[in-house]
């Protein structure tokens, strides 16, 4: 058993493999993931695990520079959006965030290192992590 | 997206493949899983997802006749044991349960159809599901 | 054995993997499926299982927004077309349907998540399912 | 599309590969299939396709000398047993049948060439086919 | 052992998988088969098996609408060409045939479902089968 | 295209890999080949190719010390047995032959380097080749 | 890039997969690793990386209860043995250690979860890690 | 052991698979082989085996119409060039040869059926074989 | 154990496979490596092993003509740059070096034979090796 | 291109992987290699490459403690045996040799790390290398 807070072997390996500027996407259960993009399935049932719980765990282990979310989240899922900002503020790194449209977010998926599919069932609740380095 | 309450593709396939009397094991994060036994990794971080949350989701979809737990759980993890019994009572099937020693439970793992590893961090918190049929 | 009504492991996993707006195609036994498109073979003999029986089973488990059929079906296989509409009306979701030409339907196959090949032997009897989410 | 009445590619290949005295098992949806035994999944939903419909299709293409069923079928599923005998009589070959206990049937599965899992939901409804040759 | 006359497992599976309008190519032993095209090797020694013997066996099992041969065959291998026409006339389906240049035939190979390589050693003796359906 | 008379790539590789005293079995279409034994499928239809035609081609390329046949062949398939002796006499090596029972022949299959399945449909017509070296 | 101090993806995944009482072996470059035991190759050149540098990194991430070393190390490589004890004392867990003969250590390798091969070139310098849990 | 003079299983299979006009390249040990091109490694140490020794062995088994070499060989490796011509003259087929620049030779490698890498250490010593048929 | 100073099996094989003008990249732990580029993971923890230690080991075994580094290294990591030049001067070959921008270096990665990821944590510390031959 | 004298990638990797006391077998072209033993094919044609040429190349890179040969070699292939002793004396290590019967040598093959098959055509000419370390 590892000590770092991230118990999932493939997730640990993914985090260790991520290079500077590469992206890892945390997805709700409905995001259409392209066939060629690697995926890690975490979703068990509706809301389990939630995207933000997974995000907290990942941010404890992965160096992240910036996150991108769909601009639709602020309007359609304002509470989730607020909790996302809280989660980012509690991260060990100072993480900026920006927005693109949900369509642009979906169009960026083929370039992602991997998509982590959670049990999240909140509309538009997907987050692109831009990986960083600590040197 | 499926309607049955079980969002995980490999988990759904496992449940669909399980034959009468075959066993599926829900495991805490520390159970020593033999190299040849198929495993599905669900654990993200300590306690996420909990074994009982995963059990509830699985019982909603898998026909189960009986569960087996380590006899050590009643003494060392009595609260978890009580919540386990609650979870079983809320299942759609009438499920009996019995106990074996933790050592016997570990010795049975090579014969399991698969082990589902959760984020559970309660001592001895593992459950063997004996699969049933509804005809 | 699972409880959801869909007994096939690969089919269960496919349904659990399907994202919003992705397509799954139910095919008669003669549809030319492109080499790179994943396929699930269900057809045993002529008419077994029928496409509509498989469709009923899938609609019980997969959230579907809309279906697309070849416009040729209404003219060349009117009885099958009528039974298809009945099947859609008995689905748990409200499902709209539209039509494209058979040639356009064939041209869309490389983008499908998978093609499910049934034993159907009715001319033009193929259905594109546009997957939805329930949140 | 092939002309022989058996539309399923893996099933066609299995039939073509079967040697004299080797066994192929047709199973209901609940038979516990050993991990190392090849399996072909045909079951879509409860009863679809039925074992006897699949048997008819297979007997049209595979040379079979003899079938073995569980002795429990005659008592617990007498109607199914009667329909099985009808199906065997309509086969192109003269096929004898014998009985073993359900436990003995399950114990023989590791030696089978493959198990074909149908949607059958009748208790004890499994059939061992002993393959023959026509020369 | 199967009853349909086609004893080869991969060939049986190929025939069962072929969709309407897809092509299967029967080749002499020297046709340059592109690296990405699936191939089934049947050729044992010069002339064994001959392409026309394989064609007869395949036509007994595969529904074929039309065949295409190189226009060079009529001039350079007239006897083989005549025997090909005989073979087509004895097929269960009514099969039309047309001609393209040998270069066009070679250029079409990347789009074929598979190439079946025989032991044929007659110049230009290759046949494209255009698969049909019987409904 | 190779010059040695053996056109089949896997067969050529098998012959090149065979060590002194290892066995390669030429089989009729009904021999029950164990699951773990490598097999090369050559059989197309009943009698095509015949075992003896394949044997002639193989003997032209493989150094063989001795062959073993089922003792049943002499009684049940005397004509085939006579033609087998002719074929052996025309081989480039001096090849001795001996007999074992058909049951012993089947029991030896798990130790074979590979089984080559032909289209032969003569009862008991199987031949074990004991590979040699020419130095 | 991950934050936990262990940069190697397969090593991170191995640590995350290790169950209570399972063993991971850190090996010098000459240990005879059995063919069936998973191995992670880290050794680049003589002494790079050293086993103790790798051990420090692993102990920062893996929960370890106990280590086992060959009893030969104290006599033949006393300085390395002393540095090993130092390394263990600086680990976050309290780790006990015991000794077995080098032959017994080699005999235990088939049961290890994995062997991590370093660039160590000190005689008998191998360490068995007995994995623990922190709950 | 085979009789044809070519002892290498993959090489034998490659020769048996080669179609008319396809190319096989014999390479010195330094030729930059593209990642996607199949390769057979024969080189053991400097000069072992030499390209011309391998060429002699291959020409004894593969039907070759023509070879292409880099025009640089005549000037930079004239002795090797002369020995190449000798080798070609001793081949069973009448083989023509032509020249292209070394850069053009390297640019043609992605289209080759395979590259056979020898131990040759003579500058520019690479040969493209254009495969033929003997019918 | 090998004698050449390079103990890592995949690294040894990579060096043996490298052709003239092909590139191998030594990378710090944060370089974004494209998904399709082969990678060898050597990094254990921050600085272990360092890129220059790995470079020394590789230069002892691989023939290198030239290296390319990011022009940013001279300004942002001047000490590392100086040590790199020292390392190159101690190599058995005379190795020239040139510079490109870090962006151009990243853009060249898809064409590399492989990327070797070290534990280096110095900004911009990546080196492209242009492979040579010694004949 | 590597500098160590061993140009073959798989051979280089094998040498780098070999642990103390593990065995690598150099074989003539006729040794019956068990199906489960890894093999590296080097033999091109009769005598090319010879076993002793390969042995010289391997001894230049692999640390070897001892070799074992068949006792039959001294009597049946005395010249080869003498040249073997010469080759061993020119090796960088001091290598002892012992003898076992050819049957015992063949019986030891399943335990070998790998068998390297050369083009050697001298009777009984096989050598077991017992790998060593240089620390």
From TrEMBL, chains A, B, C, D, E, F, G, H, I, J:
Catalytic-site annotation from UniProt: 20 (proton donor)
InterPro entries found in the cross-reference section: D-ribose_pyranase, RbsD-like_sf, RbsD_FucU
Binding site for substrate: 28, 102, 124-126
Keywords from the named record: Carbohydrate metabolism, Cytoplasm, Isomerase
Matching Pfam families: RbsD_FucU
Catalytic activity reported: beta-D-ribopyranose = beta-D-ribofuranose
Compartmental location: Cytoplasm
EC number: 5.4.99.62
Main location: cytoplasm
Superkingdom per UniProt: Bacteria
This protein's record includes keyword Lipid metabolism: no
Pathway as given in its UniProt record: Carbohydrate metabolism; D-ribose degradation; D-ribose 5-phosphate from beta-D-ribopyranose: step 1/2
Subunit structure comment from the entry: Homodecamer.
Physiological role: Catalyzes the interconversion of beta-pyran and beta-furan forms of D-ribose.
Family the entry assigns: Belongs to the RbsD / FucU family. RbsD subfamily.
Stored HAMAP family: D_rib_pyranase
Protein name: D-ribose pyranase
Annotated organism of origin: Deinococcus knuensis
The encoding gene: rbsD
């Amino acid at each position: 058993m590892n000590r770092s807070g991230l118990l999932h072997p493939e997730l640990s390996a993914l985090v260790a493999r991520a290079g500077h500027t590469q992206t890892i996407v945390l997805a709700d259960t409905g995001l259409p993931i392209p066939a060629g993009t690697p995926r890690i399935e975490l979703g068990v049932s509706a809301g389990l695990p939630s995207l933000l719980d997974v995000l907290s765990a990942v941010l404890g282990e992965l160096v992240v520079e910036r996150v991108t979310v769909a601009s639709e989240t602020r309007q359609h899922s304002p509470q989730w959006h607020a909790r996302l900002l809280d989660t980012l503020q509690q991260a060990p790194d100072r993480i900026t965030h920006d927005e693109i449209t949900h369509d642009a977010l979906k169009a960026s998926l083929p370039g992602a290192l991997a998509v982590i599919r959670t049990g999240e069932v909140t509309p538009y609740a997907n987050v692109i992590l831009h990986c960083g380095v600590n040197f």
